[in-house]
Amino acid sequence: MYRYKITIEYLGTDLAGWQRQAGVMSVQQILEEAIYKFSGEQVILFGSGRTDAGVHAIGQVAHFDLSKYLEPHKIITAVNYFARPYAVGVWNCELAPNNFHARFSATSRYYIYRIINRPYPSVIDLNRAWWISSPLDVPAMQQAAAYLLGKHDFTSFRASSCQSKSPIKTLTELNIIKEDEEIKLYLSAPSFLHHMVRNIVGSLVLVGKNIWQVEQIKDVLEAKDRKAAGPTAPASGLYFVKAAY
């Protein structure tokens, strides 16, 4: 068997997320069907992260096995051809060791969350960022973000449907940068809880709107209660950037 590691980008707007689900179109299904069409083999694609419906990816990583060798550049061309017309594409493919696993071999995962912060919406960024019309206090958001760095119990920021065995996670990066009318939040960790990034963003936006004081983020973290945190930020602003190995 030959194990292939692929890197994928996609717009999640019209998709049901990464994972294959009955009755809806997912990134996993699109790619598995594309691979079958040119290889004749039924494969199972394993991704480095399960993005939700509406979430995008710049560098999602996945692996699959084929019984016969195919040149990586030919796999890229074939997958992209058969994945049309969906907004899903492979931009890198390489052979990987048989013990490589896109999910379990990953040592870190990186996300970006985009906010368009101006009085009027952006047509170009429709479904690709969270539009917030009222001015956000970015320095206050940056101060609040510092409370979340490091190893904590992130129960307050996990979805009620989260299946992770432990709420303990280590947030290694949470930077907030404003560039003109756009605010980007950069987050990284070895792994994340379900909705963790979007719930953190939703809470930090309350600080940015001066609805919450900076120190309230610490109180929310210590509460270990999802009801204490802010709303879940829209999926449209979230991008899976890459996984490190």
From TrEMBL:
SUPFAM superfamilies: Pseudouridine synthase (SSF55120). Residues 8-104, 144-245 form the Pseudouridine synthase I TruA alpha/beta domain. One of its GO terms (molecular function) is tRNA pseudouridine(38-40) synthase activity. The keyword DNA repair does not apply. It is an enzyme of class 5 (isomerase). Keywords: Isomerase, tRNA processing. One of its GO terms (biological process) is tRNA pseudouridine synthesis. Substrate binds at Y111. Pfam families: PseudoU_synth_1. It catalyses: uridine(38/39/40) in tRNA = pseudouridine(38/39/40) in tRNA. Homodimer. Formation of pseudouridine at positions 38, 39 and 40 in the anticodon stem and loop of transfer RNAs. Belongs to the tRNA pseudouridine synthase TruA family. This is tRNA pseudouridine synthase A.
